[in-house]
Design goal:
CATH topology: Ferritin
Structural class: mainly alpha
Helix content: over 70%
Strand content: under 5%
Largest sheet: none
CATH class: Mainly Alpha
CATH superfamily: Ferritin, core subunit, four-helix bundle
Shape: elongated
Bound molecules: fe (iii) ion, magnesium ion
Length: 171
């Protein structure tokens, strides 16, 4: 535990920060697995572009899990030790792919990113001017989540537009 490092935290209970970071940690692992498995099962038009994006996001979510775990340890906490705890601590849950169609998979993933953005934005609000290190960390992750949402949304729009064009050229 970083003694002097933690002494600079003002006006926030360290246990409370650890608690919210562990919830985010659960989210990151579930997001990682969601992208991992989506990239495996996805089917349909322009799926190669989607697979590249999903795999890149999986890598990012795992990196986020690493960053959050390291911060929890610095604060003197313990990252969740059992995957069962991911489901009881998660903010954003897990969106099991019900349909493997590219459009449906992208919709599920966009929902996840929207939730991640809300979650990190709330932690940034909570830690601003109080725990600078956690604030910087969640701001960095938040920027990635905003990029994720944008990438998925752009891909979703390209694909749905392409499908509309094909349909109108056939009619
Ligand atoms: Fe993430
Ligand atoms: Fe993300
Ligand atoms: Mg991306």
């Amino acid at each position: 535990m970083a003694k002097r490092g933690n002494s600079i935290i003002k006006g926030l209970e360290i246990d409370e920060i650890i608690k919210v970071l562990n919830r985010a940690y659960a989210d990151e692992w579930l997001a990682y697995y969601q992208y991992f498995i989506e990239a495996k099962v996805i089917k349909g038009i322009m799926k190669d572009a989607a697979i590249a994006e999903l795999n890149q996001h999986a890598t990012d979510e795992l990196r986020h899990a690493n960053m959050v775990a390291d911060r929890i340890l610095q604060l003197g906490g313990t990252p969740l030790l059992n995957p069962k705890d991911w489901f009881t601590h998660t903010n954003c849950g897990y969106e099991e792919p019900k349909s493997f169609d590219v459009v449906s998979i992208l919709k599920d993933s966009i929902k996840g990113e929207e939730c991640a953005i809300s979650t990190y934005s709330a932690i940034a609000d909570m830690t601003r001017d109080k725990d600078i290190v956690t604030y910087d960390l969640v701001s960095e992750i938040l920027a990635d989540e905003v990029e994720h949402e944008e990438d998925l949304q752009a891909l979703y729009e390209d694909i749905t537009e392409f499908v509309t064009d094909i349909k109108s050229s056939l009619s």
